[in-house]
Amino acid sequence: MEKLDPKQRLERLGEDLIRLIQEGQNPHIRIPVRGSSNVIWDQSAGLLHLGDKMSKRYFINVAHARKFMQTLLVASFAKQLLDEGIHTSLREAYYSLKRTLPNSKENTFEEQSESDAAFVDLEVTIDLIRDQLHINADRRGTAAGNVIIEDRGDEIDWSRLGSGGWSIPGNVEDIKFKEIDADYILVVEKNATFDRLHEDKFWKKHNCILIGTQGQAARGIRRLIHRLNREKGMPVYVFTDSDPYGWYIYSVIKIGSMNLAHASAKLGTPQAKFLGLTVSDIYNYGLEDAIIRAKDVDLKRAKEIMKYPWFQHKEWEKEIKLMLKNKVKAEQEALAKRHLRFVSETYLPEKIENRSFLP
Amino acid sequence: MEKLDPKQRLERLGEDLIRLIQEGQNPHIRIPVRGSSNVIWDQSAGLLHLGDKMSKRYFINVAHARKFMQTLLVASFAKQLLDEGIHTSLREAYYSLKRTLPNSKENTFEEQSESDAAFVDLEVTIDLIRDQLHINADRRGTAAGNVIIEDRGDEIDWSRLGSGGWSIPGNVEDIKFKEIDADYILVVEKNATFDRLHEDKFWKKHNCILIGTQGQAARGIRRLIHRLNREKGMPVYVFTDSDPYGWYIYSVIKIGSMNLAHASAKLGTPQAKFLGLTVSDIYNYGLEDAIIRAKDVDLKRAKEIMKYPWFQHKEWEKEIKLMLKNKVKAEQEALAKRHLRFVSETYLPEKIENRSFLP
Questions:
Q1: ipTM surpassing 0.85, yes or no?
Q2: Which domain holds residue B169?
Q3: Do B168 and B263 lie in a common domain?
Q4: Does residue A99 belong to the interface with chain B, where contact is any CB pair within 8 Å?
Q5: Are residues B123 and B270 in the same domain?
Q6: How far from B118 is each of B33, B193, B275, CA to CA, in Å?
Q7: B174 vs A163: CB contact, 8 Å cut-off?
Q8: What separation in angstroms does the CA of B47 have from each of A340, B42, B234, B254?
């Protein structure tokens, strides 16, 4: 499939089925297994991905027929989107495709969860991400920096967007990077911290690209970071709260997630580094007064994270153990304890100058 | 206070206290009461606002002293922000201001809820919104359309931002509208619908400004809509899901909210109209197959909303009763049932052409 574009992959899927029918065989689709039993941690690539377990979905099989029909419905729908050059969301796709089959009481889909699953089956079957099939993820996040992109015929200069910034869409497949004058990408969890750094023109003074995720990084943001890293060699530093949720945000940007293991190769950025806020930072930067007491749920989550293969580094072990021992966490905003511009004038420049990152 | 700028208002607050001290009086601040007992529905203005009940907060009074101290701490902090030309968030302000008073075990603030409340007390006392004191709200939302603004020295053309759009900041006080070529503002609840209209260049074909709120409209969005309506006379049409939550989103944009009644005059847009999705639209546009069954909580909320004075219009009564009778609701995305571009090619043009709005 390597060299086929999305439309060709959909056509290949259809042609293969026609061939089976013409040969008098039971039409079927080979679909990689998506359950956790087939998710593999690929240490050399630094990514989660799907293993090679495959399942077959047959048309003439009472247990398969409904899902077979659903898979072909979403494939046909995706083909239409590509033909018409139109994008849509999973929710709209569900409404578009939900109907009662003629002369029956059978609905194509009962719930959106069914059409969502059918799209993921299609993604893994033809080995691409649904963004490439014009199914957009929800939009979230903001970008600023010395970057000029081309998108839908517009040239957009991320350094000239005032206090706002560029609103990152859910689908960044068609964006072209025209000019980049930056040494790295700084990914920031909290909007308040993004706003602080943006007002202080941190991206200008330190020649970087600033990306605000507003919590967990949305799919469009992860794909954007991936593309800037892969296509333009941009180093990526992730700056979150000092808590297990922040570590998780980082790990999803870096190695992908179990749920979307099939998409990690296109969404993950294995070269990303964790800048902070580390647990040690709380003590190194005199933030003891701004500590939040860790709850049981935090400690439980920290213990789980410590066991993940991708957190098996002595630096992470030390940090997580320090958190468990002192039962503390802290937010990015805690740096305001020192003074409001401490984060942009002292903390970040020092961490980056000293390359004080976790792997 | 009418003609005083924010810094002068803060100085006036301090000078009044110094005068009281010099006169040998117990220093105090007059603060409008904020509870629901003092929230008034102003029918002629079409806004919620605070009534004229006042409270006095004394320095020498064991029940008042702590809050008195907190009010002055946030006033002094706001003065510094204005002096330094720096903005921040409520969370960072809390971290900045939280400390143990010298020679005591008394903290300035125990929880952020205390500093948040102190900022609101300050807002109502000097009759401005905290945005004017450089305390930013969380950022959310996206704008597109034939609008050129000036912000932090940049000229930003909302019509040239590709599939992204302009990321609306939490504070829009300093934005200048340079050029506007649009007939109205279309405010859209769902990102997916915003993306649909944006891809179809709805704002270009129908000469409007498109604002996506991503759910409940954030403060920055509401202030932006207010300013475009007030300063530029832009009509505002709000397009949400057909459910009580959508109606509430609309009412907050229009008349304000109980919690922020003191800020309604600066955040609300009484001239806003509700475009849809109405309950009647479900039937008028053949969306019966895309109905969602209303839950008990929806019906309960609908009955509450029907009693609000600002929903006392026969058109609203008819809509809410239809919802209660048929126990139905529907999402904006349900319009995709007809076809993906039905919303941009048929539904919205018809509704706007016929001025089929609810008050």
A1: yes
A2: 142-353
A3: yes
A4: yes
A5: no
A6: 13, 38, 38
A7: yes
A8: 36, 5, 18, 8
Name the residue facing A151 among B99, B149, B162 (closest C-beta).
B162
Distance between B305 CA and the closest CA of chain A, angstroms: 27
* pTM for this predicted structure: 0.94
Report the candidate in A84, A83, A116 with the shortest Cα–Cα distance to residue A98. A116
Phi, psi of A239 (to 5 degrees): -125, 110
Closest in A142, A155, A171 to B167, CB measured: A142
CA of B237 vs chain A CAs: smallest distance (Å): 22
Tokens linked to A292: 């939040």
Shared domain for B146 and B129, answered yes or no, is no
Q: Choose the catalytic residue: A58, A94, A95, A308.
A: A95
Contact list in B for residue A96 (CB cut-off 8 A) is 336-337, 339-340
Among B97, B116, B136, the domain-final residue is: B136
State whether A284 and A317 are in the same domain: yes
Provide the sign of the torsion angle of the four alpha carbons A63, A65, A68, A70, taken in this order.
negative
Is residue B89 included in any domain, yes or no? yes
Task: Report DSSP state, residue B161.
Answer: S
Using the 3D structure, point to which of A136, A155, A177 is the last residue of a domain. Answer: A136
Sorted by sequence, the CB contacts under 8 Å of residue A306 that are 6+ apart come out as A316, A317, A320, A321
Residue B359 covered by a domain: no
| Closest Cβ–Cβ partner in B92, B161, B196 for A192 | B92
Query: DSSP H helical segments within chain B, as ranges?
Result: 6-22, 65-84, 90-97, 112-125, 191-199, 202-205, 219-232, 244-255, 264-267, 279-284, 296-307, 314-326, 342, 348-353
Report the residue from B92, B155, B166 with minimal CB separation from A333: B92
Same-domain pairing of A120 and A214? no
The domain spanning residue B312 has which CATH number?
3.40.1360.10
CATH value at residue B29? 1.10.10.10
Residues 244-303 of B with CB under 8 A from A: 289-290
In a domain, B333, yes or no: yes
Residues of A in contact with B85 (CB under 8 A): none
Total domains present in chain A:
2
- Order of strands across the sheet that contains B147-151: B154-157, B147-151, B176-180
Per-residue pLDDT of chain B (359 residues; tens, 9 = 90+): 568 999 999 999 999 999 999 999 999 999 999 888 999 999 999 999 999 999 999 999 999 999 999 999 999 999 999 999 999 999 999 999 999 989 999 999 999 999 999 999 999 999 999 999 999 999 999 999 999 999 999 999 999 999 999 999 999 999 999 999 999 999 999 999 999 999 999 999 999 999 999 999 999 999 999 999 999 999 999 999 999 999 999 999 999 998 899 999 999 999 999 999 999 999 999 999 999 999 999 999 999 999 999 999 999 999 999 999 999 999 999 999 999 999 999 999 999 999 999 99
Inter-chain residue contact B169 with A160, CB threshold 8 Å: no
d(CA A11, CA A288): 60
Active-site option among B58, B94, B95, B283 = B95
* CB–CB contact B99 A289 (8 Å): yes
User: Is residue B114 within 8 Å of B70, Cβ to Cβ?
Assistant: yes
Closest CA–CA distance from residue B29 to any residue of chain A (Å): 28
Give me the sign of the Cα torsion angle A306, A312, A317, A320: negative
Q: Compute the nearest-CA separation of B129 from chain A (Å).
A: 18
- My answer on whether B129 and B261 are in the same domain is no
The answer to the question of residue A177 being in a domain is yes
Position A259 scores a pLDDT of 87
Residues of B in contact with A334 (CB under 8 A): 95
Residues B312 and B223 in one domain: yes
Which site among A81, A89, A92, A160 would you substitute to test the B interface, given the most B Cβ atoms closer than 10 Å to its Cβ? Answer: A92
Asked if A58 is an active-site residue, the reply is no
